[in-house]
Design brief:
Shape: globular
Distance between the termini: 32 Å
Order of helices and strands: HEEEEHEHEHEHHEHEEH
Number of domains: 2
Amino acid sequence: MELDKLPPVLTAGVTAENWEERRRGLVDVLAREEYGAVPPPLAGEVCVLSCRRSFAGKGMFESLRFDFSAEGERFSFPATLIYPAGGQKFPFFVLANFTSAVPDKYFPAEEVIDGGFGVISFGYNDVSADEDRFGEGAEKLFFREGDEGRCGKLSLWAWAMSRLLDYVFARGLADGEKTAAIGHSRLGKVALWAAANDVRFRYVFSNNSGCSGAALSRGKKGETLAFITRMFPHWFCEKYPAYAGREWEMPFDQHFLIAASAPRTVAVGAAAEDDWADSYSQYMACKGAEVAYRLFGMGGGFFDDAPKTGKAYGRKGLFFREREGTHCLSRADWQYYMRILRR
């Protein structure tokens, strides 16, 4: 991949001082051409359904319900909040997960508590079903089936991540400089998109997010734009499938998505046996986004032409690592992300 053939992250005259204008331009392109705009914030109510001491007494476990209303519609979804016992502010993860269970195979909850972190999480299907239909989930607060210009479901799940962040700030639980969006696979795409739209996420951890996430679409191996838009058209806005087979004509690529979080911290996790997500394309997207970090004297360390398994890339603000193994948000991944957030 020749990075100079990608659409440029920086245009003439962009500096650190006016970067925010260009950053917003990157987000606008992605909203218009790929994901659809994330819906606006809504004031809602949060009900604490239960609260108990847990994790051998080391932490708190709360079951929550988020209630919203708009345009004559009402919608609620559940969430779970865990944090260390004690009355201070904590580094906090907002986790978009495949299930509401805590812990589960992608979420070693007690280990995260032991590290001194809080996590607020939700099961993505509780916000909007991962199916090619609209009208029953959070979308009914904003648009109806068949509405022109509707967003895809990745944007709806990103909207939910920001509402959870609203809550931990309102509760005074989160250290505002240590707030992180995290997700795996399709939800790694969501974490990147949530952080691009909500600068209160100071960190974003995108694990094995692949096609239409942290991986360049141009020249991608494994899952392609044609496959993903055929299988999951509801994830995206209605314009995006037209780029299938025409990736080199796109006025953007996924390095825009990574750069849209600069100068905040992005860490992209990949796996050596995850050919579908394509580690090389994710590594090259990070290299393509690095120019935005250089505006701030950040970045560095992406010297290899292709990633080497087990080697951690990046220095300040932008990181990449391909570990051994398959497509999973593993304990080793959590440990890697916790190390970055801790420092």
